[in-house]
């Protein structure tokens, strides 16, 4: 099975965020990318899914203050 490769715009659509947010994730090295020809950015769907899995909101455990 071939890897799905996304552009920055496609990644933003997949994540349902703006393109600028994706560029910030790239700049902060939170999202793994490949650069083609020094400018074009491509992102594997697998890497996007890995980012999502690592940044899931986790329910706080313990006593809830009422």
What's a quick, concise take on this entry?
The chain is α+β, with helices and mostly antiparallel strands and 66 residues long. The chain contains 3 helices and 3 strands, in the order βααββα.
Q: Tell me the span between the first and last alpha carbons.
A: 51 Å
What about the largest sheet? 3 strands, antiparallel
Low-confidence stretches: none
Structural class: alpha+beta
List the topology elements:
Elements: E1 5-6, H1 8-15, H2 19-27, E2 34-36, E3 40-44, H3 45-54
Helix pairs in contact: 1-2
Describe the structure.
The chain is α+β, with helices and mostly antiparallel strands. It has 3 helices and 3 strands. A hairpin with a 3-residue loop joins strand 2 (34-36) and strand 3. Helix 1 (8-15) packs across helix 2 (19-27).
Question: Tags for this entry?
Answer:
globular, 66 residues, alpha+beta
